[in-house]
Amino acid sequence: MSFEKGIKKPVPAGSERDQSIDVARGLAMLYIVVFIHGIFWLSIFDEQFRSMFLFEMPVIFAISGYSYALFERKGVVRLNWRDYSTFLTQRFARILLPYLAYAAVCFLVVAGAALKEGGTFSFWRALAAWVNPVQRGVGYSVMMLNLHLWFIAPFLVVTALMPIVTKLPSLLRMPWALWMLLLAGMVYLLDAVPGTMLNPVQTSLFYLAWSVLGFSLAKRSQPLRFGELVVPFALGLLILFCLPHFMLNMQVNKAPPNWVFAIFTSCWMAGLLFLSSRFDRAWVSGLASKVWLKPYIQYGYSIYLWQGLGYSIAVWVGRKEGLPTVAILGAAVILSTVLGMLASPLERVRLRMG
Q1: Does 207 share its domain with 246?
Q2: What is the mean pLDDT of residues 233-243?
Q3: Is residue 39 scored above 60 in pLDDT?
Q4: Which residues contact 150 (CB under 8 A, 6 or more apart)?
Q5: Which H helix or E strand runs over 193?
Q6: CB-based burial, 291-314: b 16+ in 10 Å, e otherwise
Q7: Buried (b) or exposed (e) across 1-35, using 16+ Cβ within 10 A?
Q8: Is residue 215 part of a domain?
Q9: Confidence of residue 234 (pLDDT cuts 50, 70, 90)
Q10: Domain check: are 154 and 187 in the same one?
Q11: 236 and 263 assigned to the same domain
């Protein structure tokens, strides 16, 4: 069976790469490492106020979907079963090899801390917990080492499903408001199922939807119109402001993502897309060469992984020495960036097939 129908022809050799997607990816990763995890992991501001800025992961997945559309446009892969398995092997290697390197270091840190404190420590169970990206060290972690690693499992699922679901044209031409309501309805139905068995499915489908949205934006011949963004943005805000006050804590609503979080993130995304359409393209491209942003463009995934260790070291030393929060945050960002850059060669490992 073949999925080759509808694959775009390769772009002409020498065509200039649009740097806006690289800049968007770098800014999103910078936002996560410096701001989101800074205010959450260092307990800056009230939790409900902090949660109003939790739109970062839908943005990351939308950028991933947009990037996949550019990758597909090059004609690099024709999705028959052989090419699909090659695609999965190469993509999974790029995700899992950096993760396993980080997990190995975290396991050694946790094992060392356990041996220092004495008592019993299950070596093999701890190792298995860290090697498994679904468990991501839960039950065998300290401080911030694994707080951000929930991202890996749904990212693997989305990566595997994107080549298949993007062959469904009806998903790619929906108006924004309809897309927003369908996303909210989907997670509402999944959230209504008793128990937690479907939580991983709910999370994966939620972020798959954002990745498909990014893909569809890349495929559009015309940018989104003003009304397509502003009308659902206003509708979403109206719905959110009619909710009881306690429901607006997005830290609660995001795990797993429920319909409130779906509307909340849709509002943020509509606003961000509208703002980005006002930026001068030359100015955006100029950001790609900025020293403060380049590491997050080139090594973003590795920095994302290693921020768990960077923040843990900075917080441990900073609190021991009584340093102010701003100094701890600065040290955490620097450590995370340096560690990610040192580990980044693993992102570029390519497996040869056949």
Answers
A1: yes
A2: 80
A3: yes
A4: 136, 203, 255
A5: none
A6: eebebbbbbbbbbbbbbbbbbbbb
A7: eebeeeeeeeeeeeeeeebbbbbbbbbbbbbbbbb
A8: yes
A9: confident
A10: no
A11: yes
Residue 191 pLDDT: 84
Is 71 in the same domain as 93?
no
- pLDDT band of 325, cuts 50, 70, 90: very high
Q: What residue numbers bound the domain in which 51 lies?
A: 21-79+174-290
The identity of residue 42, as a single letter, is L
Return d(Cα 328, Cα 307) in angstroms, integer: 13
Shared-domain flag, residues 74 and 180: yes
> What is the phi/psi pair of residue 134, to 5°?
-75, -45
Same domain, 266 and 154: no
- Domain end among 254, 270, 290: 290
End-to-end CA distance of the chain: 20
Could you report the per-residue pLDDT of 52-62, keeping only the tens digit for each? 999 999 999 99
- Residue 302 confidence (pLDDT): 97
Coil vs helix vs strand at 194: coil
CB 140 within 8 A of CB 125: yes
Q: Calculate what percentage of the chain has a pLDDT beyond 70.
A: 89
332 lies in the same domain as 276: no
CB-based contacts of 231: which residues, under 8 Å, 6+ apart? 177
When mean pLDDT is compared across 82-86, 250-254, 259-263, 339-343, the lowest value belongs to 82-86
From the CB of residue 325, how many other CB atoms can be counted at a distance below 10 Å? Answer: 14
Q: What is the DSSP string of 270-312?
A: HHHHHHHTTS-HHHHHHHTT-TTTHHHHHSHHHHHHHHHHHHH
Number of structural domains in the chain: 2
pLDDT at residue 80 is higher than 90: no
Torsion angles phi and psi, residue 290, rounded to 5: -70, 135
* Whether residues 233 and 348 fall in one domain: no
Q: What is the pTM of this model?
A: 0.89
**Residue that the structure tokens 């950001």 belong to:** 287
Residues whose CB falls within 8 Å of the CB of residue 51, separated by 6 or more in sequence, listed in order:
248, 249, 250, 251, 252, 253, 254
